[in-house]
Amino acid sequence: MEYQFTKEFALKADESDPLKEFRKEFVFPQFKGTNCVYFTGNSLGLQAKKARQYANEEFDDWGTFGVEGHVESRRPWLHYHEFFTDSLAKIVGAKKTEVVAMNGLTTNLHLMMASFYRPAGKRVKIVCEGKAFPSDQYALRSQLRFHGLDASNLIEIEPDPITELISEDQVLEVLDTHADEIALVMLGGVNYYTGQLFNLEAITRKGKEIGAMVGWDLAHAAGNVILKLHDWDVDFAAWCGYKYLNSGPGGVSGVFVHEKHHDKPEIPRFEGWWGHDKRTRFVMPEDFVPIPTAEAWQLSNAPVFAMVPLLASLELFDKAGMEALRAKSERLTAYLDFVLAEVKAATGVPVKSLTPTNPVQRGSQISVVVPKVGRKVFDYLSKNGVMADWREPDVIRIAPVPMYNNFEDIFRFGELMIQSLNEIK
């Protein structure tokens, strides 16, 4: 596609978009009577319109059935978490038995590490990326302390000081160098700051070769990029639901546990009754018998009202399909790259992107740096109907989400960037 920085081009591209109807299924914040340009789906996805309907239905069933709603409601609460299984399995490339919706992201990472970070002898170290999302670093360091180890056992792979990216070769070299010391490799699939997508398959393969457990934080990857967790032999993964999966603020997370770990009751874990064998769960025996699926890591029954927005969103993912969403994502980010170059040419301001230009190395995010006046540009955009995201010290994160963003959004953003720079510089 030959891009043009014109409204006519953007409208024509949107008209031919096979996913254009999905935009109508979401609720947009308003700006002067029209939809704002919403580019923060990498932080909090938009509300699917059916979320409100489904929530009202659950309230109605609660009022009608009381406790019997666990079995009598239109979506029986007893099995509520199971309504997400098929969709999540498709999104992360898993078998249905390998995924479950539960808890929040960091809670799930701790539950996974309770089982899969087992330091012993010389093999005690954890590998993560430098400039990982702080919650990951807090979780990893606290896991080390929990096992009586200090932070020197956390190997943080620091990004290049110029590009702020971490090359695949860097990661593989670290794994080679510390091969007999590493107990766990746990990186973010897509870095929250730069938008860099790591080669999960190659890194997982190398981690397994050196004898380490490999897990992934997929907060910025689930619902954003193509994942094949089962085929890649990932041990575990966890993701939040409120970014690309639109589960609402603080919404329900999900986990993946490879099937090779399922039928092993001896695996250490923090146990709860909802992970107990369904056949005898309500007999309430003294001894815990894990469900032979990823459900064994559940602690409590499903928080139905908290799960409703995710249910509404996943129906749309089922209809759109990850392959089609990913293809549109690549078109949108390519157009955004083009528009940023047009902004640079029109203003003379050396606007640059930290995010790799190769679509294989990024998802639906471009991290933009505007030298010296970045914060002023961000504030201008905010006051003129663009909801983007500021990250210290100097990054404006722009996330054109294929489920509901379009080419016109990007064109409008480019116009406002030029206006802001012409007024500020």
Structure described in brief:
This protein has 425 residues and is of the alpha/beta class. It has helices at residues 7-15, 50-65, 69-72, 85-92, 105-116, 134-146, 168-177, 200-209, 304-320, 322-347, 374-383, 407-424, and strands at 26-27, 30-31, 34-35, 37-38, 47-48, 99-101, 125-129, 154-157, 182-188, 213-217, 236-239, 254-257, 352-353, 366-369, 386-387, 389-391, 395-398.
Describe the structure.
The chain is of the alpha/beta class. The chain has helices spanning 7-15, 50-65, 69-72, 85-92, 105-116, 134-146, 168-177, 200-209, 304-320, 322-347, 374-383, 407-424; strands at 26-27, 30-31, 34-35, 37-38, 47-48, 99-101, 125-129, 154-157, 182-188, 213-217, 236-239, 254-257, 352-353, 366-369, 386-387, 389-391, 395-398. The protein has a 7-stranded mixed sheet, with helices on both faces. A 4-stranded antiparallel sheet has the order 13-14-17-16, with helices on one face. It has a two-stranded antiparallel sheet with strand order 1-5. It is globular. The chain starts with 6 loop residues before the first helix and ends with a helix.
